[in-house]
Task: inverse folding
């Protein structure tokens, strides 16, 4: 993290060199593995046409989702982008529910209507999955405004990509959040490419935390390939937001190993660059740190992999056996359903 000025700088959260809580460290690794293996299976299912439509994978970016979700309380809210599988799983949406949604089944968390880009779970305060670039930003500000007006002290986390920072929604949202001192945690996943456009071709200021700091919001850059660094930074930011510190901004510097989507030929990146970033894969890095600290014993990794494989197989079987929506119900929810006036409290 870099200090910007007297109004926006904060002390840098330290990236731990050892894992003090062995069980928690293994939990973080397990969550990253769940997300990675889930998405790898999604590739197979997509190729087999059991998942259709768009599919945006976050392979390589798992540390961002796991580090952030593990510092939020159940009362906090999350608004994500269309690349949200990892955030949904780390937030507690079941793998069965997520997989059924990807396969378009009624048992999915959005009744099969949203698919990959619109995972949603009101009970867990997970408000999307939003397909529009930057579309989640004003939603998060609206949630935060409601909390502010009601005197509630909780965090409204909004995740978006570097491409969203070139959109008007970003400027309007962070400006209002700063003016009204709203409890929003802005989290930018900067993977260097807005779809197929390199960061330096879209942003005159490529230091995105500096750009956010211009709104007098505490803004930090974080190694988004290190789950422990993300968790430490997110915890400090979330605690400050929850204690009335107003909006905060984290630039999670990360990289996706696969193309923008399954339809993307990925010709805009140098293959050597991709391989170089794979050397910073957050999962092997966590394995090495946990092994060195003694938190991960011999055979533990194999046990985790086996448990996750069983969970994924169960989720796929559940989704495959799921129900497609009846044709007669396809127009349902297009408009609000009638409400019994007698059932509404005055």
Result:
């Amino acid at each position: 993290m870099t200090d910007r000025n007297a109004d926006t700088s904060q002390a840098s959260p330290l990236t731990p060199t050892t894992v003090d809580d062995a069980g928690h460290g293994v939990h973080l690794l397990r969550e990253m593995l769940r997300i990675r293996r889930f998405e790898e299976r999604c590739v197979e299912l997509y190729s087999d046409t059991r998942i259709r439509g768009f599919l945006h994978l976050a392979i390589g970016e798992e540390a961002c989702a796991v580090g952030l979700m593990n510092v939020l309380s159940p009362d906090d809210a999350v608004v994500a982008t269309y690349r949200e599988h990892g955030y949904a799983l780390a937030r507690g949406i079941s793998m069965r529910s997520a997989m059924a949604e990807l396969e378009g089944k009624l048992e999915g968390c959005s009744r099969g209507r949203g698919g990959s880009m619109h995972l949603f779970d009101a009970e867990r305060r997970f408000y999307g999955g939003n397909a529009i670039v930057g579309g989640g930003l004003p939603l998060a500000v609206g949630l935060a405004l409601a909390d502010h007006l009601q005197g509630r002290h909780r965090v409204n986390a909004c995740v978006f990509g570097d491409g969203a920072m070139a959109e008007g929604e970003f400027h309007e949202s962070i400006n209002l959040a700063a003016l009204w001192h709203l409890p929003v945690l802005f989290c930018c996943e900067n993977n260097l490419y807005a779809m197929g456009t390199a960061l330096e071709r879209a942003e005159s200021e490529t230091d995105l935390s500096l750009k956010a700091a211009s709104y007098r919001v505490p803004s930090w850059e974080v190694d988004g390939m290190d789950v422990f660094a993300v968790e430490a930074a997110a915890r400090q930011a979330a605690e400050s937001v929850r204690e009335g510190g107003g909006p905060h901004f984290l630039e999670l510097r990360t990289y996706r190993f696969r193309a923008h989507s399954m339809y993307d030929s990925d010709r805009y990146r140098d293959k050597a660059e991709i391989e170089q970033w794979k050397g910073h894969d957050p999962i092997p890095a966590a394995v090495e740190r946990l092994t060195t600290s003694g938190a991960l014993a011999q055979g533990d990794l194999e046990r985790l992999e086996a448990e996750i494989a069983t969970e994924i197989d169960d989720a796929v079987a559940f989704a495959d056996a799921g129900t497609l929506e009846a044709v007669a119900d396809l127009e349902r929810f297009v408009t609000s359903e009638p409400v019994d006036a007698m059932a509404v409290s005055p």
Q: What stands out?
A: The radius of gyration is 20 Å. Residues 143 and 156 are 7 Å apart (CA to CA). The chain has one domain: 22-343.
